[in-house]
Amino acid sequence: MRHEITLHVNGHEHRLQVESHHTLLDVLRRQLGLTGTKHGCDCGECGACSIWLNDRLVLSCLVLAAEADGAHVLTVEGLAASGEFAHLQEAFIEHHGMQCGFCTAGFLMAAAALLRENARPDAATIRAALAGNLCRCTGYHGILRAVQTASRMRR
Ligand code: FES
Ligand code: FES
Question: Per-residue pLDDT tens for 89-134?
Fold first, then answer.
């Protein structure tokens, strides 16, 4: 079954035709070309598809596009364009928080969501907030240091 929906993505309104089974991840990547959000496990296990939906961190592979009708979506492209978390991106680079980069957009969205709620998280809080994001390359140490540094830069 087809649905006509409206999505506000990174500040732009889109009228879209979607099938009942299409996820928000499908629509962002295939219809809108926003490939910064990654298609990993497709079952809520890896965090690569993390975005903000109406200002809340969600896994876009677990949200049906039809259910998101009228919603406001922020992807990593929008996060970068806003400049609000440029210090977080810089800290990831400084601390080698990425290698292949496949997980990075998801980590940035999750870390930004954490820092928005808690400007001074301790290491345990950062680990807990990022527990849903998997990285097969970095060993997580650089990511943890990057978020700690970003937290200090934001104070
Ligand atoms: S692709 Fe969504 S959690 Fe892995
Ligand atoms: S940098 Fe490769 S999966 Fe995280």
Answer: 999 999 999 999 999 999 999 999 999 999 999 999 999 999 999 9
Residue type, 15: R
Look at phi and psi of residue 85 and say left if phi exceeds 0, alpha if psi is from -120 to 50, else beta.
alpha
How is residue 119 written in tokens? 């400007």
Domains recognised in the chain with CATH numbers: 2-79 (3.10.20.30), 83-154 (1.10.150.120)
Tokens found for residue 137: 């390359």
pTM metric for this prediction: 0.96
Cα-to-centroid distance, 155 and ligand 1 (Å): 31
User: Which residues fall within 8 angstroms of residue 70, CB to CB, at 6 or more apart?
Assistant: 5, 6, 7, 8
Task: Decide: 58 in ligand 1 pocket, CB within 6 A.
Answer: no
Residue nearest to atom 3 of ligand 1 (CA): 44
User: Does residue 42's CB lie within 6 angstroms of at least one atom of ligand 1?
Assistant: yes
